[in-house]
Every structure is written in C-alpha cells, then in structure tokens.
Specification:
Distance between the termini: 38 Å
Strand content: 5-15%
CATH topology of one domain: Rossmann fold
Radius of gyration: 21 Å
CATH class of one domain: Alpha Beta
CATH superfamily of one domain: Creatininase
Number of helices: 8
Length: 187
C-alpha cells in the first residue's frame, strides 16, 4: 500500500491530478478498492480512479457467445485466449489438463453459502491454481476480448477526463470534516 501510495503521490507531484488504476489481476481486486477508499484518510490534490469498466452491451453479447466453457478463471478459456495474443510463446496447450482439474473443489461451500469467507478461499477451490478449462482457447477469441476491453477502457478514460465532480467532492469532504474535528465548533 505504501508503494502504491508513493507512486500516486509522485505522479501527482509531476502534475497529473487524475490517476487511473486498471487492475489486470483478480487477486488484486479487493486491495485496489481498499487503496481507493483510503484515499480519504488525508486530503490530496489528486483523485485516484479504479477502473474495471463493463463491456459495451454490443460487445458483451459477442464476447459471451464466443466462450465454450461456463467455469472460467486462472488459465481458463478467457485468460488463455488473451495470453495467446499477448505472449503466445508462454502457452503450452498440450500441458492443459483434461481431467476436470480446473473445476471448483467446493471445500468451503457451506461457509460461502452463509456469506463467510476466509483467506484460503481460492486454494480451497483451486489447489493447483487452475480454474476452468483452457483447451477451447484461441488467439481469435483473445483478440475479440482484448479489443472489447480496450473499447470499454477508452470510454471510461474519456469520462474520467471530463469528470469535474470527484475532486470537488473530495475537497468538500475534507472541508466538512475539518469543521467537525474534536475541539472545534461549527456555526
């Protein structure tokens, strides 16, 4: 968190007051959201935007229709398709298991059904860290998916460029909080 905070401060010190974080790893999802939330711990002259934009409806329909698998994740059909585009030399299709290894083990399903979670949740379902079935993956599917993600990200960035509210509200939040510090009175 300190490293990420220092990087954002340095970006802002160099004049960029809108910082966009795009998460490319599922394991960081909650950490990045937490980082965005703690931006309210002290006043800043910049805004951190965490961006994971939804696909446009027309892209969503095409992308959803292309997948052959229903369980997907780490090294599954979608991720393997992307890597076939980005770094095809890393994919060894002949090494992908065909024995249901990527299906959830559901060791903690009773806890999950009542809304309880633990730090070991991922390992409980995926002890080999493989989720889904990467065998139906193709570079063509990866190209379509990455192009759709790029369009969604471009639209989000365009909105962020136009945003005038986040910084104003952040400043308002701190101005209001300043008036309610212990030992002060508000009129």
């Amino acid at each position: 968190m300190s490293l990420l905070d220092n990087i954002c401060r340095e970006i802002a010190r160099n004049g960029m007051k809108k910082i966009v974080i795009v998460n490319a790893h599922g394991g960081n999802e909650h950490l990045i959201q937490f980082f965005a939330q703690i931006q309210l711990a002290q006043q800043r002259d910049y805004v951190v935007y965490v961006v994971e934009p939804p696909l446009r409806p027309e892209d969503e329909k095409i992308i959803t229709a292309q997948w052959q698998t229903t369980v997907d994740g780490h090294a599954g059909e979608c991720e393997t398709s992307q890597i076939l585009v980005i770094r095809p030399e890393l994919v060894q299709m002949n090494h992908l298991p065909s024995d249901q290894e990527g299906m959830p083990k559901e060791h903690l399903s009773e806890l999950q059904q009542v809304g309880a979670s633990t730090g070991i949740w991922w390992y409980a379902d995926h002890p080999t860290h493989y989720r889904g079935d990467g065998r139906p993956a193709t570079a063509e599917k990866g190209e379509r998916y990455l192009a759709a993600r790029a369009r969604a990200l471009a639209a989000a960035i365009q909105m962020i460029k136009q945003d005038r509210q986040a910084q104003r509200l952040q400043n308002e939040f701190f101005a209001t909080a300043e008036g309610h510090k212990p030992g002060t009175t508000s009129s």
